């Protein structure tokens, strides 16, 4: 049995939103650069380690901590973007407008996550919680909507 799939005109919004996630990844990487410079920790080192903290004064310890937070925000984005982008593309086949709104909301949450994670006054990167609270439900909704789109295709 074959399936004919008509892509709705609004799917262009889905494709555009998905493409914007690529640029958001670029922003995450560029955003970590000043933190790396302040921490004086050069590539290929991905994170500051315990030995770096032990040898640092208080000012550099804060710089190392914020660098690790910026790197972790970027790494977390890289971990979550592929599955979310695929879910966005799949869910958008049947629900282009809802998928686009969820995708944009997810990106706003990811920005708040990254910015909040690197707030100096927030202990243990707790500033990321607001962004997480926004992006996580959007992400799970996209995943569920993608699954539901697949179910609709075989029913």
UniProtKB/TrEMBL annotation:
Domain of life: Eukaryota
GO molecular function: glutathione peroxidase activity; glutathione transferase activity
One of the record's GO cellular component terms: membrane
Keywords: Membrane, Transmembrane, Transmembrane helix
SUPFAM superfamilies the UniProt entry points to: MAPEG domain-like
One Pfam family recorded for the sequence: MAPEG
Membrane topology value: Multi-pass membrane protein
Transmembrane segments: 12-30, 98-117, 129-151
Location within or outside the cell: Membrane
Protein name per UniProt: Uncharacterized protein
Native species: Dothistroma septosporum (strain NZE10 / CBS 128990)
